[in-house]
Q: What sequence folds into this?
C-alpha cells in the first residue's frame, strides 16, 4: 500500500512536469504547426504518458477516496513549478484555492457510486 | 471587493479560461465515448483518443493566454462536468458529497482566479 501511495505521488509529479513542458511549448511556438516542432511537446507528452501508465496500473488497488484527492496533488506541484521555474505570482489565495480543490475532490470521491 | 478582483482576473485571463473550458468539454466528451464504448467498441475508443488529443492541443494554446498556476487547475472543473453529465446522460445519482465536492472545487478555482488579479 505504501508503494502505491508513493507511486501516486510520483505520477502526480510527472503530470505536473508534463503540464510545465506544455506551458513551455505554448510560450515558444510561433504558430499552430510550429507546436509540432517543439521538443518540449514530446518531452511533456512523455511525462504525461508515464503518469497515465502508472495510474492505469495501480488505480485498481487503491480506493477512490484516496486515489482521487491524491491525483489533485498535481496542482500543488504545478503551482510550485510555476512559482520557482516560471516566476509566476503565487499568493495565499492560490495556495488556499488549490487546498480547497484537494478537499473538494475528496468529497467527490465519497460521492461516487462505486467501490 | 473580492468580486471585483474576480471580475478583473477573469477579464485578464478570459481567452485562456475559455480555451480551458473548451478543453474540459472535449475531455468530457472523450470520457463519455470511452464509457459508452464499454471497452468493446474500438471505434468509440479511437475517436475518444483523437478528441482527447485535440483537447491537449487546445490546452497548449490556452496556456499561451495565462499563467500555468491559474489555467492548469481549471482542469478540475472536469469533475463538475462529469457529475452533471453523469446525471443527465446516465441517470447517475447526485449525492450530497458530490454537491459538497463541486461547491468546494468551484470555490477553490474562484479563489485561484482572485489570487491572480
A:
Amino acid at each position: 500500500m505504501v508503494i502505491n501511495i508513493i507511486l501516486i505521488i510520483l505520477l502526480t509529479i510527472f503530470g505536473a512536469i508534463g503540464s510545465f513542458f506544455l506551458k513551455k511549448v505554448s510560450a515558444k511556438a510561433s504558430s499552430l504547426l510550429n507546436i509540432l516542432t517543439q521538443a518540449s511537446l514530446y518531452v511533456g507528452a512523455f511525462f504525461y504518458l508515464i503518469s497515465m501508465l502508472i495510474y492505469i496500473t495501480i488505480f485498481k488497488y487503491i480506493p477512490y477516496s484516496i486515489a482521487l484527492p491524491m491525483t489533485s496533488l498535481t496542482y500543488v506541484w504545478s503551482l510550485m513549478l510555476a512559482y520557482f521555474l516560471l516566476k509566476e505570482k503565487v499568493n495565499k489565495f492560490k495556495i488556499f484555492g488549490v487546498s480547497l480543490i484537494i478537499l473538494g475532490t475528496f468529497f467527490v470521491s465519497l460521492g461516487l457510486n462505486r467501490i | 471587493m473580492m468580486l471585483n478582483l474576480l471580475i478583473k482576473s477573469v477579464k485578464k485571463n478570459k481567452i485562456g479560461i475559455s480555451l480551458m473550458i473548451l478543453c474540459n468539454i472535449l475531455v468530457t466528451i472523450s470520457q463519455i465515448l470511452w464509457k459508452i464504448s464499454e471497452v468493446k467498441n474500438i471505434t468509440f475508443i479511437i475517436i475518444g483518443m483523437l478528441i482527447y488529443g485535440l483537447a491537449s492541443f487546445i490546452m497548449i494554446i490556452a496556456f499561451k493566454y495565462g499563467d500555468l498556476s491559474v489555467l492548469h487547475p481549471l482542469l478540475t472543473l472536469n469533475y463538475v462536468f462529469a457529475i452533471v453529465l453523469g446525471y443527465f446522460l446516465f441517470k447517475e445519482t447526485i449525492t450530497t458529497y458530490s454537491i459538497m465536492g463541486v461547491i468546494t472545487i468551484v470555490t477553490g478555482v474562484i479563489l485561484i482566479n482572485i489570487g491572480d488579479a
In short: The mean pLDDT of chain A is 91. Chain A touches chain B through 46 residues (CB under 8 Å). Residues 2-28 of chain A form the longest helix (27 residues).
